[in-house]
Amino acid sequence: MFPPSLIPGLATVRALALAAGVLATALPAAAHPHAHTHGHMDLAVAIDAQTVTLALEGPLDGFLGFERAPRNDAERKRVADMVARLKAADGLFQPDAAAGCRLQKVELDSAVLGLRGAHGHGHDHDGKAEHADIAVDIVFTCTRAAQARFIDAKPLFEAYPRLRSIDVQVAAPQKQFRRTLGPRAARLDLAGR
């Protein structure tokens, strides 16, 4: 197990992506970093010697089918199930076994749900928003992170069929690139092919 001080946070992931120029060449998402499109999410991936860090962000609708505080027991259960499933992120994102990765940390941030991660960037300040996002920061510690050839997100798409696409920006030691994942192309090839 690695000490928390060695684990990069979302700010580090975003800084790596910015430093790599990935965001500078990004699509309209760079011009509209919080574009709210149902069924779509953005994912930043940073890989270094011992960590694979994922920063996922997008509308709550993709996970819950609604984007506000839960109004009844069924919706509260749906939120609790989502939180539990996202906290077990190694069941949704599966790095190549060759990298020897293990889930280290997951932080969730959604103001409308009262989830406060390290970023606190929820947009709902009065609890009445009808369109709200969630941010999920995931850190894997790995014995050989650079040997990861892929990250499989198929379980994520299977668990949340409302998700239709994820724009991915990768910052790795040797290259930076972008990809779009979907239910039929859910494996992120880290070779950048």
Structure description:
With 193 residues, this protein is of the alpha+beta class. It has five helices and nine strands, in the order ααββααββββαβββ. A six-stranded mixed β-sheet has the order 4-5-2-1-7-8, sandwiched between helices. β1 and β2 form a beta hairpin. 38% of the residues are buried.
Primary descriptors:
3-stranded antiparallel β-sheet; alpha+beta; disordered N terminus; 20% helix; 9 strands; DUF2796 domain-containing protein; signal; single chain; 6-stranded mixed β-sheet; ZrgA-like; 193 residues
Topology, pairings included?
Layout: H1 10-19, H2 28-31, E1 40-47, E2 51-59, H3 61-64, H4 73-87, E3 94-95, E4 101-109, E5 133-142, E6 150-152, H5 154-159, E7 165-171, E8 176-181, E9 187-189
Parallel strand pairs: 1-7
Antiparallel strand pairs: 1-2, 2-5, 3-6, 4-5, 6-9, 7-8
Outline of this structure?
The chain is α+β, with helices and mostly antiparallel strands and 193 residues long. The protein contains five helices and nine strands.
Q: How many extended strands?
A: 9
- Proportion of strand residues: 25-35%
**Morphology call:** globular
Query: Main β-sheet: number of strands, strand sense, barrel status?
Result: 6 strands, mixed
Helix proportion of residues, in percent? 10-25%
The SSE order reads HHEEHHEEEEHEEE
Keywords: Signal
InterPro entries: ZrgA-like
Protein name: DUF2796 domain-containing protein
Signal peptide: 1-31
